[in-house]
Automatic annotation (TrEMBL):
One Pfam match: DNA_ligase_ZBD
Matching PROSITE patterns: BRCT
Catalytic activity reported: NAD(+) + (deoxyribonucleotide)n-3'-hydroxyl + 5'-phospho-(deoxyribonucleotide)m = (deoxyribonucleotide)n+m + AMP + beta-nicotinamide D-nucleotide
Residues the record lists as binding Zn(2+): 438, 441, 456, 461
Lineage, uppermost ranks: Bacteria, Pseudomonadati, Bacteroidota, Chitinophagia, Chitinophagales
Listed name of the protein: DNA ligase
Amino acids binding NAD(+): 55-59, 104-105, 135, 158, 196, 320, 344
This protein's UniProt keywords: DNA damage, DNA repair, DNA replication, Ligase, Magnesium, Manganese, Metal-binding, NAD, Zinc
UniProt family annotation: Belongs to the NAD-dependent DNA ligase family. LigA subfamily.
Keyword field contains Thylakoid: no
């Protein structure tokens, strides 16, 4: 979309604009230059995933535009980046008709179906061979977009295929959809485009993690999350969910007076390239054009094998006759076009029977209902237990013991009960009774205002004690190898272990008499326990299982104290001034360090040799790599990725989540993948091997 020369010019202009104020942007022309810069950087960030400026710099430019337009409201344009933001919607969505009906695709599930589709197409067209365009079948919410005179004027849901809901305001929150596009350069006046709104796997996980942390039920899957978000009446919430959109079809267009059909609109592949060049995210990188159906079949099967490697969900491939004239010749039935077919991947849903519901107690006392179902094989895994999250989920879904239920497992997302099949009920089903007291210690349950989860607040509840110890020894906490969940539970049941300090006071003579514990395994366990005493402070903070304190927050806290018990001196207000710590997290930290039992436990741990002091490097970030950013990708020759990240952080380095202009070093191993490709495009990122990284770590002074 942007040539190298244009990119350089826009980047230079960006640096100049970062020095501007609303007073220096003294004309509509200079304000338009600012809008052009923002559109360019939105395209680099949201479409190419390859930003050229820091997030803070983008925010600075955006706020500059907001202030300028506020001072000169007659300078505002309809496609200004500020016009994505809208007030909360009121009333129901208006129903609008699509210019061309959004028909369903005929489905195929095997090679024979695809060959039959090809046979019929060749018979109708009287051709020996047909060229097909193949692309992913995105698993999200379908949308229809209309652009007139280069401006986005309407976005609608699929609805019944003939008409859908007008969701233009929400569509404008999706950063991968430009508010304007130069269709007029191709002689087009009005264009209707089909697309799919998605929530990528990473955004979906982050959003669900946030919901679970608040005690709310997570969203079922990325598809439902995306489709449901389109109809939310709060555009700000739509924006927070970080939706993306792929466009994959131009369904209708009108030409400007005197213009002819452009060459790009003679084939489907050409139309996808046109959309990409105009700044849309279309599947040009994944699409392939093949002569004949055999190569199509091979590509579909290859893509199914790597579907889980994609950052978004797909449920199949779409095969389309590439030539538009031939599409018109083949026509369509009342239900589906004869020139396209969907090849569906193996199902990730199945039905089972809900046999019972167990109620489990977590380390923070939350009561989680867990459905026990008849084992069902879905997506390569046999599923027999499924979390129901909280009582509200049971009630909202109207689940009953004995129900036949629809179960889904998408990618690496946990199994989920989509719904009960109520029409199959026989009358023998029974209601699920949520316990009034803790299922382990019988203590009264409490539900905090604004939370969905019931909680046992008895800190001595055996289930919580065991779960806290399991968390304490886990891999991302103190990583005491050989001391997993099974051993924690066994030692607790036998009376050999009763609390976290007890881990360091184990009777190994008694353990040696247990089946499966020989001299060598005991020696390894003793060594692992001893090594845990020297783990960095942030790991210990995370291991304590303080509610709402994850690994990132633990690192923030560790950098602010010289001794763990210094956190007793932090007020809630002081904690909230730290990075990414809000009122809820701060309150939980204060509660933990105000509890005398917790302080006694920490003092006992210190007496047992656990390191509560902080190294100066962890506290102040004073290593030789302070401020240097790293990202690790691929399989490293000798280190696990987590080990390499810890080594970098121990020297003051910072780990990023993706390739961007903020990244200094990309450390690559085998099968590095897309991160390496992106880094090569950024001249600012230095690509190094594990050996070079280790050499850098070994240097005692900063020679970068």
């Amino acid at each position: 979309m942007y040539s190298k020369e244009t990119t350089i010019a826009l980047q230079e202009n960006t640096q100049a604009l970062l020095k501007d104020t609303p007073e220096t942007l003294a004309s509509p022309d200079s304000t338009e230059q600012l809008r052009q810069a923002l559109r360019f950087h939105e395209y680099r960030y949201y479409v190419l995933s390859d930003p050229l400026i820091a997030d803070g710099e983008y925010d600075q430019l955006f706020k500059l535009l907001e202030r300028t337009e506020q001072a000169h409201q007659d300078w505002i344009t309809k496609d200004s980046p500020t016009q994505r933001v809208a007030k909360e919607l009121t009333g129901n969505f208006v129903t609008v008709q699509h210019l061309v009906p959004m028909l369903s695709l005929d489905n195929s599930y095997n090679e024979a179906d695809l060959k039959d589709f090809d046979r019929k197409a060749r018979q109708l067209s009287k051709l020996d061979t047909i060229a097909y365009c193949v692309e992913p079948k995105f698993d999200g919410g379908s949308i229809s977009l209309i652009y007139e005179n280069d401006l986005l004027v309407r976005g609608a849901t699929r609805g019944n295929g003939v008409a859908g809901d007008d969701v233009t305001t929400n569509v404008k929150q999706i950063r991968t959809l430009p508010l304007s596009a130069r269709f007029s350069d191709y002689g087009l006046q009005q264009v209707e485009i089909r697309g799919e709104v998605l929530m990528n796997k990473n955004s979906f996980k982050k959003y669900n993690d946030a919901l679970v942390e608040k005690g709310l039920a997570p969203l079922a899957n990325p598809r439902n999350a995306a489709a449901g978000t389109l109809r939310i009446k709060d555009p700000a919430e739509v924006r927070r969910r970080n939706l993306e959109a792929f466009v994959y079809h131009i369904s209708d267009y009108t030409l400007l007076p005197g213009k002819e059909i452009p060459e790009e609109l003679t084939t489907h592949a050409g139309s996808l390239k046109l959309l990409w060049d105009l700044g849309f995210r279309s599947p040009v990188k994944e699409m392939r054009v093949f002569d004949g159906i055999d190569a199509v079949v091979t590509y579909c099967l290859e893509f199914e094998d790597k579907r889980d490697d994609l950052p978004y969900e797909i449920d199949g491939m779409v095969i389309k006759v590439n030539d538009f004239d031939l599409q018109d010749q083949l026509g369509m039935t009342s239900h589906h076009p004869r020139w396209a077919m969907a090849f569906k991947f193996k199902a990730r849903q199945g039905t089972s029977k809900l046999l019972n519901v167990d109620f489990q107690v977590g380390r923070t006392g939350s009561i989680t209902p867990v459905a026990k179902i008849e084992p069902v094989y879905i997506g390569g895994v046999t599923v027999s237990s499924i979390s129901l999250f909280n009582e509200d989920v049971i009630r909202e879904k109207d689940l009953m013991i004995g129900d036949t239920v629809l179960v889904e497992r998408a990618g690496d997302v946990i199994p989920y009960i989509v719904k009960p099949l109520a029409e199959l009920r026989t009358g023998t089903e029974t209601k699920i009774a949520f316990p009034q007291g803790c299922p382990i210690c019988a203590s009264q349950l409490f539900k905090e205002e604004g939370e969905a989860a019931w909680r046992c607040i008895n800190i001595e509840c055996p289930a919580q004690v065991v779960e806290r110890m399991i968390h304490y020894v886990s891999k991302n906490a103190l990583d005491i190898k050989g001391f997993g969940e099974a051993n924690i539970r066994k030692f607790y049941e036998l009376g050999l272990l009763k609390d976290i300090p007890g881990i360091y006071k184990l009777n190994f003579e008694a353990i040696g008499k247990l089946e499966g514990f020989g001299a060598k395994s005991i020696e390894k366990l003793q060594e692992a326990i001893q090594q845990s005493k020297q783990q960095p402070l942030h790991r210990l903070i995370f291991a304590l299982g303080i509610r709402f304190v994850g690994e990132t927050t633990a690192k923030v806290l560790a950098q602010k104290v010289s001794h763990l018990l210094d956190l007793r001196n932090f007020s809630q207000e002081a904690l909230q001034e730290l990075e990414d710590i809000g009122p809820k997290v701060a309150g939980s930290i204060v509660d933990f360090f105000s509890n005398a039992d917790n302080i006694n436990m920490l003092q006992e741990l210190e007496d047992l040799g656990i390191q509560l002091n902080n190294s100066s490097k962890e506290m102040h970030g004073g290593g030789q790599l302070e401020g240097v950013t790293f990202l690790f990708t691929g399989t490293l020759p000798t280190l696990k990725r987590s080990e390499a990240e810890e080594m970098a952080e121990a020297k003051g380095g910072k780990i990023l989540g993706g390739v961007s202009a903020k990244l200094n070093y990309l450390v690559v191993g085998e099968d590095a993948g897309s991160k390496l490709d992106k880094a090569k495009k950024l001249n600012t990122v230095k690509i190094i091997s594990e050996a070079e990284f280790l050499k850098m770590i070994a240097v005692e002074n900063n020679g970068l």
